[in-house]
Amino acid sequence: MSQQWWRDAVVYQVYPRSFADSDGDGMGDLPGVTARLPYLKDLGVDAVWLSPFYVSPQNDAGYDVADYLDVDPRFGTLADADELVSRAHGLGLKVIVDLVPNHSSSEHPLFQAALAAGPGSPERDMYVFREGRGERGELPPNNWTSIFHGDGWTRVTEPDGTPGQWYLHIFDTTQPDWNWENPAVHEMFEGILRFWLDRGVDGFRVDVAHGMVKPAGLPDATLNAHGLIDIPEGEVPIYFDNDGVVEIYRQWRPILDEYDGDRMMVLEAWIPEKRLPLYIGVDRAHQSFNFGFLQARWGVETMRAAIEGPLALAESVDSPTTWVLSNHDVIRHATRYGFDPDHRFGEGLSRAEVPDAALGLHRARAASLLMLALPGSAYLYQGEELGLPEVADIPDELREDPAHKRAGVPGRDGCRVPLPWRHDAPAYGFSPSGESWLPQPDAFGELAADLQEGVAGSTLEMYRTALHLRRELGLGEHADGVTFLEDVPAGVLALEHAGVLVLVNTTDEDIPLAGIPASAGREALVASAAGTADVIPAEAALWLRR
Ligand code: GLC
Ligand code: MG
Q1: pLDDT tens digit sequence for 16-41
Q2: Helix ranges restricted to H, 324-452
């Protein structure tokens, strides 16, 4: 690894409840993660990002935090967290934890105190409480809707039993937004940062990182024909991406810099690319997810644009870009690329949609190879190395995504199904008891890690090979940059980086390498699909050595 570790790291996202269950309650846990760290080491990643494992009623799978400084008993104890960090460090893996500063759980003691203390109190000022509109305050303070559908405000009953103020929640009713205009909120989060930095974590993934600061006066938003906040193409809802949010990163950066070992933060900010310079820099955040790449449709022009844009921006902010194709919020890419020609990533997969699974996996493997050849850091989501698909047939009563509960959309549970480790074990090896908080489909059996291990051409071995080559050849480093080859057959995306020629065939027919003179005499390093040595197989990617 070069200079600061995060600049070219491959970070593996662990979604704790679905990774590995050690105690048989059907819910993954921290000891389960610790036990599988050697698997991640072997895979060849540099770091692990853990989605929230803090005390939480789990109304949004832990993104509703009731105590930022302790581990939820479902996931273990603080001692388990310490053990995980120290074992990871022993293996040379960094550990990033999730930080959720936009909102807490409604069960957070400070929110409970705010409810009890009543209007005008300092306790209420920790959150965003307002009087309602209308004659008796019966209407919400403004027309903001929640990202999870429905109203963005909930009215409370005051301690004296009367209907009272409203509080803002950009997400679920049980996720009240913190009031970042209050210095006490800043102080509290600085303490939270230090708590985890002192325990040795290497960084933070900041949740809804573009959300904490709301526009002054909380003005109404423009609504669309469906009564939802209008979001013009390439823009964000009114309550996101307000300039003042950068002040928070300016405060946090010196804290991280006080610690040794290049502690970092990566922002989950769904913002237009051009806004990146506000957030990233030596006096603000280190990096931000580049969701443009995730959203790009399969095709030469679309994928090339999603690479060139971020690379150019990275130079301007002097921070390598990140790459990501899947996470716990989007339809897994092995399924997403099977939608043809439509392309959708949000709100889950309905049973009525039947994307082409084989095509999806083919393209997903190619897209992953493309991603892993690019300079910058790459974020993998657990199970993508097995080629797991999105699961559509989860019984509605088992779905937990608040968006499903609020609006009936399929929701994000389909990408959160527990991992298959062994094809012949109960719950495919996820849990010793065979319990699993979501049912695993039969298709997971054939994709179990044990069936892929050591099998040439399996998705798992493709990732391993690519990750080891990436490190060996320094592909994550920027070096001389990326050069696109122009004179190539139609449907081929060709680029050269750090001595590797990367070819992606986006068509449904094999393309002879003879049409690409630059490939002559080069050794194939890894391919996303089997084929003869003289072609790029259909819907596949190849790396060739100089
Ligand atoms: C982020 C998380 C998502 C969560 C939301 C609210 O987008 O990734 O899972 O539901 O924030 O915290
Ligand atoms: Mg468990």
Answers
A1: 999 999 999 999 999 999 999 999 99
A2: 333-336, 357-372, 402-407, 443-446, 449-452
